[in-house]
Amino acid sequence: MSKRGELGRNGPLALAFNGLFLAFMLAPILVVCVVAFTPEGYLSLPRRGLSLRWFRAILDYPEFITAFRDSVWLGALSSTIAIGFAVPAALAIARYRFAGRETLLSLMMSPLMIPHVVLGIAFLRFFTQIGLTGNFFGLVIGHVIIVTPFALRLVLAASTGMDQRIEHAAASLGAEPFTVFRRVTLPLILPGVVSGWVLAFITSFDEVSMTVFIASPATNTLPVRLFLYIQDNIDPLVCSISTVLIVLMAVLMVVLDRVYGLDRLFVGTGKG
Amino acid sequence: MKRRRAATLVPYFLSAPALLLFLAVMIVPLIMTALLSFYDWGQYKGIVPEFTLKNWREMIADDYFLEVYVRTLRISLLVTLFSALIGVPEAYILNRMSPRWRPLCLLIVLGPLLISVVARTLGWALLLGSTGFLNQALVSLGLLSEPVGFMFTETGVVIALTHVLAPFMLLAVWAALQRLDGKVEQAAFSLGASQFSVIRKVVLPQIIPGILSGSVIVFALAASAFATPAIIGGRRLKVASTLAYDEFLNTLNWPLGAAVAVLLLVALVAIIVGCNRLIERRFAQVFE
Fold first, then answer.
1. What residues of chain B, 42 to 71, have a C-beta less than 8 Å from chain A?
2. Predicted ipTM of the assembly
3. How many C-beta atoms lie closer than 10 Å to residue B234's C-beta?
4. Domain map (residue ranges) of chain A
5. Chain A residues with CB inside 8 Å of B89's CB?
6. What 3-state class would DSSP assign to A261?
7. Residue B211, domain extent
8. CA distance B73 to A94
9. Which residues of B touch A110 (CB under 8 A)?
10. pTM of the entire predicted model
11. Across the interface, which of A24, A122, A256 has its CB nearest the CB of B30?
12. Per-residue pLDDT of chain A (272 residues; tens, 9 = 90+)
């Protein structure tokens, strides 16, 4: 009995370690959120009560608000397009053994391993040559490439786990291939598609290292604008903007955790 | 007969759009960048599309570039080491945690992965500065006699990057722990092994592949990190990715910047592929 208790439970040392680890993970995020509420005009902890002045100050910087809007559009567009490419490719990879299958899979997953700075440089060179610089369309293309691996991974996990006999049943009852896809396949892989879309959206929304190369003053994303601002000076304004971002992501995160499970979301490989 | 021929073409139809997209807007630009690194450049003449080894010679001859690449390597190795030192025990502890607390702890540990790297790095900039909150706390606790500036130092970059990347190590080890058979641990316990020797002799050998693949991921991400070294390292402490950025957007010497980026990519791919080969050969039986 005592042996069993010893095996299953974490000792006090383990719990202390866990506490320190969680504190380490939370500390920088919390400090940003706390400083955002300072009533002072400079970086400080809000000792004289909380104030919303730095949240109101965001409204005086329309460039951050347009950047936020552009980021949302960019994220939504590029994740939707990425899903459009990922779903058929995932079905092909999950169901068929064809020449070039492995190559296709590693090609589509490669943006995970290629440094985003290198991709940014490559896109900048490419877009300059074909006359697409400073264009929102260019940003969308770049982001589609970067978020496709995330979309593909989750759609692939869903399609691999799915029972194909249901499709065969539908087909043998006379359903056209596209009807089978729309009425049978898509509903079955929908959790993977939705989670893949959300993860792709978040990835696009947070991306800095590639975007910083191809963004222009006219078309800029929020994280890039924030990054360029922070490089010059750090003030409570960037804390309040970051707090808004953190809260938004926290909401999305809880939703994703409920719908899909955070650990599965990141571990999810082709094997399911 | 005809139908069967058509059926073998289905996967090609399904994957053609993605394949064409990646060839056209990823592979072609990467090749163009590789070519660019062999072009000439001058302050007044700009980019001249003539084949030259000038940029590559400059990178080899100038010690500054060597210093930057060595620094990138050193930071990446340290981040990988620290991520393993804290991520592996945490994964084991989380795995044994009661189902009541585990979801919350997992949310806290993995959640930051979804939060903008800029926001997280901003937090470290606030904590690490010489007037930062970490220094104030340490000085007021009497642990430090005077503030230490972590900003613009490698130590600061390593701390912030470890925070950003440790969750990836944890995930890789977590996946390995999920495959573990708890009964083996129980058997070792019932045979009288201590907690320490169960971890060392039963658990650790089985999760080493997870630790190694986590290390490859963390190393690759650390070596290509951009926003964190740019903010914490400042303008003087350069790593390969911030150096490439500088050449492109400040000096405007694109061919040299392209050479810096291509070298980073080639070195990284060589290291990743080499490590994966080594891991697969050494632990072939675990992956079966």
1. none
2. 0.90
3. 17
4. 11-51, 62-267
5. 14, 17
6. coil
7. 28-287
8. 37
9. 26
10. 0.90
11. A122
12. 334 444 567 889 999 999 999 999 999 999 999 999 999 888 888 888 889 999 999 999 999 999 999 999 999 999 999 999 999 999 999 988 899 999 999 999 999 989 999 999 999 999 999 988 878 999 999 999 999 999 999 999 999 888 888 888 898 898 888 898 889 899 989 988 988 998 899 999 999 999 999 998 888 999 999 999 998 888 999 999 999 999 988 888 888 778 777 777 765 433 32
